[in-house]
Model the fold of this input.
Amino acid sequence: MEVRALGLIGVLAALAVAYSVLVQPVGCNQTAHYALVQALADGTPSIDRYREETCDTAYVDGHFYAAKPPGLALLTLPWYQLLDTAGLVPSNPARGDGYPAAMLGLPRHAVWQLHLWSVVLPALALVVLLALVAGPAAAILGGLGTRLGRRSVCCPSQSSTGGPSGRRGGSRTRRPCSSPASPATT
Done:
């Protein structure tokens, strides 16, 4: 095998590990997608059975639905069904405890398993495409850029879940990325 091909395989393996290791804690966004995947596996778009596991819902004509477009769920459904057939889908011990306990009780690795299919594999495919079209340097930079984005490295406390406090609707004031250790302003 050519040295360049081995280098690309090494880069892909390193990126796969980097993409796979860090997963956000369960929240309304993740659990809404997960609820929709589970409901579709049950043969319905209605998440009535899983509604307590998320707050990102829509109530229409007596049924709850995930307030998410179905594309990601449809893409993820075959992987979920494979995991379910293999007995690898964890159950939620807090289902039936109501929101937010049911959402917070959802095992984190349940969402992580779907993350591998719906996030890691497409990201790796993008890196391979970049390598073929723009060369290995662009692929490496593109791959690192998706994992090492400004907010994930410099300002982890300012994720999409809100401001520095972690609340939705939190402070809109941003701390400069060049000094992540500076106190947050609220």
